[in-house]
Amino acid sequence: MQAQQPPLIWIDDDQEFPSPQQAWAATSPAPGLVCAGRTLSAHQVQKAYRQGIFPWFSAGQPVLWWCPDPRMVLKPNDFKISNSLRKTIRRFAKDARCQIRVDSAFKDVIRACACSPRPGQDGTWIVPDMIETYCELHVQGLAHSVEIWIEEQLVGGLYCVAIGKAVFGESMFHRQTDASKIALSALVALCRAQGVVQIDCQQETNHLAAFGAHPIPRSDFLQIVHAEREREALDWDFLPLYWADITN
Known about the structure:
Elements: E1 10-11, E2 33-37, H1 42-50, E3 54-55, E4 63-66, E5 71-74, H2 83-94, E6 98-102, H3 106-114, H4 128-139, E7 143-150, E8 153-163, E9 166-174, H5 179-193, E10 199-202, H6 206-209, E11 214-216, H7 218-228, H8 244-247
Parallel strand pairs: 1-2, 9-10
Antiparallel strand pairs: 2-4, 3-4, 5-10, 5-11, 6-7, 7-8, 8-9
């Protein structure tokens, strides 16, 4: 028998989010759905992330807010890379034409991610309202891009949200082989160096699992978020010495 759809909670920008623990269950039509709204603001998104909730919706849909159970996370100390990628990163780090830059081209990164749908998706969830809102979060120092530059060309990268030392991964793109993997490795190296406990991956994918990401109970995830959001914010300068812990 198909599970009965629970009532959908609607919120306005000035309203508090329901508890993530009230999200739709795994047997529902939309597991992990917390509530819906009609607008997306930077203030609202910041409130959501502080509670472990994130927006995810497509064009023509209302703003949908999610907190799935279990939650996919990547713990920096559990990060795994192949020998071939390790060699690629070593070459990249030694090549004067190659650079890791942080926050130098945030809008370019998020736009490139919007043009790179996730596997199995025909379109993108990074709609124009999402781009505008996350660019505002970037100006506020809460959204960041890790960028791969080769010969002054942006060839890959990712963007994320960080509140204190609670880090929430969003999306990646690449224009050259392994560029997004190098960006992810750089984010992990930066997080390792500064004691980040986990990087939120939102939903389970085989791609992230190959790097050591794994699902944990939502209650454990939220407990970590509530502690890490109160810690001192990360320093987003990427230092070349960070590579040593990844490539050795």
